[in-house]
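Treating backbone geometry as a discrete language has practical consequences that deserve illustration. No coordinates are needed to read the tokens, only the vocabulary itself. For completeness, the protein is quoted in full, as a sequence line and a line of structure tokens:
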Amino acid sequence: MTIDVERLEVADGKTIELDKVLLLSAGETVTVGKPTVEGAKVVATAQGEFKDKKILVANFKNKTHSSLRRQGHRQLHTRLVIDKIVGPGIAEVETAKKPRRRRTTTTKKEVTSDGP
């Protein structure tokens, strides 16, 4: 699973542990933290930073003849790929990885021209 969080100071390819887990579910058992679940953590790998879509901020004051002022903002995010989830009394849950499709190699056919 891939999630996007606010910018973290983590280099690309490094692992990070998120220890503030609010809710943990494994099959039929659900553990709700008060405020967090003790001993639970999520291990993830950073995939890099990116900018989010631009949002427009508009300022306008009525009856003052102020012009409409617009300002754009793009928030920085870090993309994380979750490797495993560890909880108290629950065995380590490995996330299912999708099999990679291999590219099929195609050969270019030689074009012969029968010119005049």
